[in-house]
Amino acid sequence: MKSPLKQEWTVYRFAVVVSLLWATACGGDDGGEPDAASALDGAPPGDAFLGDAAVVDCSGDHRESADSSNDPFSDGKNGSPERTNLSLGASGRGFTVCGQLDPAEATGQVTDYDSYVFEVDGPAQVNLRIELRATAEAGQIGLDLFRVEDGLPVPVATGPFLNGYALVAGVVVAPGSYWVSAVGWPPATDGPIGYAISVAENLDSCPPAEGMPDYSEAADADSRGNDTVAIDYPAPPRVTEADDQPEPTALVLTAGTVALVHGQSGAVESAGDSYLDRDAYEIETGPDTSELELRLAWEDGDVDLDVYLFEAGDPGNDYSVGLGTSIGGSGDELLTVNVDPEQRYWLWVGAFDSTAQGGGTDLPRDYDVTLCPRQHAPSL
Length: 380
What we know:
The protein is mostly beta strands and 380 residues long. 7% of the residues lie in helices and 41% in strands.
């Protein structure tokens, strides 16, 4: 089944949130503190188990209680995220926030936008898994995560809604304050959409695969044979004009198994986009696979490799929504995304051209991509 959710939509929509954020932060040039900071500081306190104050009858550690004022971004709302008094630490218990996306709260940008504040506690970083569950159509709602720096929310990740849930997982965060948000996109629904957001430590991460690869790069003549997709930020990904193709791996990713793809990022200059060498591989999900973890690892060196997952033949449909593009060349790229069963995808690895920012091009560089398919059935 082809998902109607396009990468240009996810990027555009998250960009809308960011632009609204800065419009809020910079609005009202009164010489005081930014509005977004005062909105956060002035947020009304919340209780872990709300009674009559809740706007929806749902089961959670925090029930939405300020639907008319928990949109901190949209024009005319002047809202602030709800404080939940909830926190998560390494090896700690997770929690659930529940509420509803109500078309009665629609603005010119969104059907409804509900934000909540939570804390990441302790001295250690936490690998997050945040899941929004609802009865909705693909692309109808979404999930956003922000960290708070100097009183201002900074975008961390966005999770498209697919197969009953939106997902942000494999994102490692430092202790501090965070906003998690449920967003409803136009057109407005006839009535509210109930949702539950679970925030927990990601315990499903699989280690890098060892042993012989299940597929090794074999068709990258002159490091240009399998480019397939060009990415020139901030433009959306596109199929290259050159006559190159993704490598047919014949891999079918069955839930509960692990596959390893090995390749090499070659020492070539950019072909005109934001990357140097670019490698694409065609893979397929099995009948029970609804979630896929990807781990890109490479030998130490002054180079920044990124990983994407596109619908085969349509790089505008980016299932990875940029989660495998952390800045810098140290540490693996790790992400988990919800996918469609029995669908072909393009696994894409590129060496980011950071020379303009003083970065290195320590190529060629061998890399491995560990693929961990899972079956996941969300339930409200």
